[in-house]
Structure formats: C-alpha cells, structure tokens
Specification:
By secondary structure, the chain is an alpha/beta fold. It contains eleven helices and 15 strands. It has helices at residues 6-12, 15-28, 101-120, 135-147, 160-174, 184-188, 231-236, 244-250, 252-259, 272-276, 298-309; strands spanning 2-4, 40-43, 50-57, 61-69, 81-89, 95-100, 127-131, 152-156, 178-180, 193-196, 215-218, 237-241, 268-271, 289-293, 314-315. An eight-stranded parallel β-sheet has the order 9-8-7-10-11-14-12-13.
C-alpha cells in the first residue's frame, strides 16, 4: 500500500494534470457501472462541524473519503475540510492507497472548476475575481491560470488582513498582479472569471455585478440552506452542475431560488460530463453568463488517488 502526504499530493499531481484527470472522471461518472451515492453527513452534537462520508465505485477501484467539515476554519491556518481518501482494488478488496483528504479536496475541486472554465468561459478571459482568501481560493487561482491567459487578479475577503496576505503570496508564486478590493462588487465589476470560495451561508455575489460573458465557479456552499450567489446570478446564468442528483439534494445556491419560485432545475443546461463528452455545446455565445455550481463527488477523489498511485507515494505495510 502507498500513502500520500499533503505535499506529495500536490507535488506528484500538478494542477494541469489533475484537470485532465477530472475531465476523464466526470465523463466516466455517466457510465452505468459507476456507483456514486450521495454523501452521508453526521453532525457534531456541539454544532461546530460534521463528519462526511463520500463513497464511490469506479471501473477499476472503489473507495471512500472520510472528512470533517469545519466552516469556522475559513481564514484560519486549518483547512475547512480535513480527512483521508482510501482506495481499494475491486478484485480482492485490497487497500491500495491512503491520501491526505484536505490536499485531495483542495486539488480536485479546483481542477474541476478549471475543467469547467476551459469548456465554458470565453477563450479571451483575462480578469479573474476571487471571493475568499483560503485554501480553495489559492488552488482556484492555480486552476484558472492553467486554462486561461489571466493577466489581472482581484481578491475580496471578509477579512482584509487575509486578503492582503493572499494577494502577496499569490503575486510571489504566480507573478501576476493581484489587487485587494474593499468589497465584492469592486472585485467582480468587469471580471471575465469569478470564483466564489468562501464559507459564507449568505450571498457574497450579486447577479447585478456580473458583466456579460462572465463565467462563475460557485464553490464554497455545499448545504441546502447555504449559498454564495444570489437568485439573480442563477436566473441570469446558463447553469451547469457536476452531478444532477447532488445538485437537487444539496446545492443551496440553486435550491433557494427554486423555493422562491424564481428558477427551476429544468433550466440546468447539463452535467459537466456531458459537456466534456461533446454531448452539450457548453457556452452558446460570447455574451452569455455561465455558472458552474460545484459540489464535488466521490468519484473525483478516487480518480485523484488512482492518478497518484501511478506516480509514486510512500510504501507502507499495515500487516
């Protein structure tokens, strides 16, 4: 068996490579032999977090991600998602790999957004707005740079100090100018790409702020009662999801507009897998606003660890 630390996850699987892995995984997600049940959640009695279980069975492997979700960690030294991914082979059920769940989540979530952006954003998108300044904000910058010629990055965070830190670190790492904005509207105004990566339960993005032709990756909210984008954002956009069953059950960004009577799931354009397979055209014109609502599925975690196993890791013996 092999193990993968957080550093090994990022070193062995660069963002550009992980984007390709996610494209293949989401195509595979539509195959009848793939099992990807909804995640199970166990809430902590004290109300400060929960334990999430995300199993999946792919064509060549099976596995599960066990992760704690701690929303209060946003902006703190700790990731909001912490845990492990376990990967088993299907013939005898042997455990093949165990990987740091925080690193896998941070990498594959941004990689899926990168894949969505490659297929849905305008080819000439150069201005990126990041709402949030935590782990996902950092990996989403990397993913956006991997698929579009970003020349300007704007960041807004509920913590001005975290935004300043994020801007300095991002400029050093990626050599792209980063401007800290006093509010979300300033960051989003005129942006081609918008990524919402906060732990907010209430909208941080208003649809009125979006320019024609913008593409939005809505990432941070993953519960039915929480959303990062307002109803106008959803109504104005051509909406795409990673998996329809998950969106209908968990995506507050979409469920709340449905409850308001302003939108309906019949207006979802497609799952990303259909776009990646060429069964849906994705963006249909340069002026269209596109929105990818990200939730994440277990198959993405399995595909990430499968790719890591092909590249190395630390051999360990549990017997």
């Amino acid at each position: 068996m092999r193990s993968f630390s957080a550093a090994q996850v990022h070193d062995l699987l660069p963002m550009a490579d992980c984007i390709e892995v996610m494209i293949r995984a989401l195509r595979e997600a539509r195959d009848p032999g793939v099992e990807n049940p909804l995640r199970s959640l166990v809430r902590f009695p004290e109300g400060n977090g929960l334990l999430g279980l995300m199993p999946a069975v792919a064509s060549g492997s099976a596995g599960i991600k066990v992760v704690t979700v701690m929303p209060q960690n946003h902006g703190a030294p700790y990731d909001s998602h912490q845990g492990v991914v376990l990967l088993f082979e299907r013939e005898h059920g042997r455990l093949l790999g165990i990987a740091d769940g925080s690193a896998v989540t941070a990498l594959r979530t941004a990689a899926v957004s990168g894949a969505a952006t490659r297929y849905l954003a305008r080819p000439d998108a150069t201005v990126l707005a990041i709402l949030g300044s935590g782990v996902q904000a950092a990996t989403h910058v990397e993913a956006m740079l991997a698929v579009r010629p970003v020349r300007e990055i704007r960041v807004w965070s509920r913590s001005a100090a975290n935004a300043e830190r994020f801007a300095k670190e991002t400029e050093v790492q990626h050599k792209v100018p980063v401007r800290v904005c006093a509010n979300g509207e300033t960051a989003v105004h005129g942006a081609d790409l918008v990524c919402t990566t906060t732990g907010s339960k209430d909208p941080v993005l208003q649809g009125a702020w979006l320019a024609e032709g913008a593409h939005v990756n809505a990432v941070g909210a993953c519960f039915p009662t929480a959303r990062e984008v307002d109803t106008e954002t959803v109504v104005r956009s051509a909406v795409f999801v990673d998996r329809m069953e998950s969106a209908v059950a968990e995506a507050g960004d979409l469920l709340i507009p449905v409850a308001e009577g302003a939108w309906d799931f019949d207006r979802v354009q497609a799952e990303l897998g259909a776009v990646f397979a060429g069964e849906h055209p994705g963006r249909t014109n340069p002026r269209e606003i596109t929105l990818f609502k990200s939730l994440g599925i277990g198959l993405e975690d399995l595909a990430t660890v499968e790719a890591l196993l092909e590249r190395g890791g630390t051999e360990i013996d549990l017997g």
